[in-house]
Amino acid sequence: MKVNSRSLTPYVVLMWTAITLVFVATAPVGGSPGGPDGQFQTQNGSRRRTPPPPQSPPTVISIAISGTAALTAVGQTSSLTATATLTDGTTQNVTNSSTWASSSSAVATVSSAGLVTAVTAGTATMTATYQGKAGTLGITVSNTPRGPGNAHDRVGFV
Prior knowledge:
With 158 residues, the chain is mainly beta. The chain is built from no helices and 16 strands.
């Protein structure tokens, strides 16, 4: 169709008649009438493109814990970080949203924010759980003596 010597091929044209509305649509060159997904839905004899289905939010694949795994003195603390890997390939810090636990609170405790505190010499496993997935990190506490008996604390040590 041409109006004033111009092609209306890539445009939508509405024409009124005495009885009904006529809808004429043409696709741009290289396109499809339904757009990229090419889907149409018929309703009362008319055609319209349906929206694509909603995307599912990404879910957690795994949890990784990072931080210092070796504590050298009773009372020493270390902050751990829990990182979730999601199905869309991204990562997210979930430290404060995770549930934290220690396998041996006699050796080391862990707070709800991932702060580990050494209690006595030994080993313990710290676990962070988020959305049903868990990550672990082994912690070793050694009780290095301080004071005159330690060679590093002697006066004149070179």
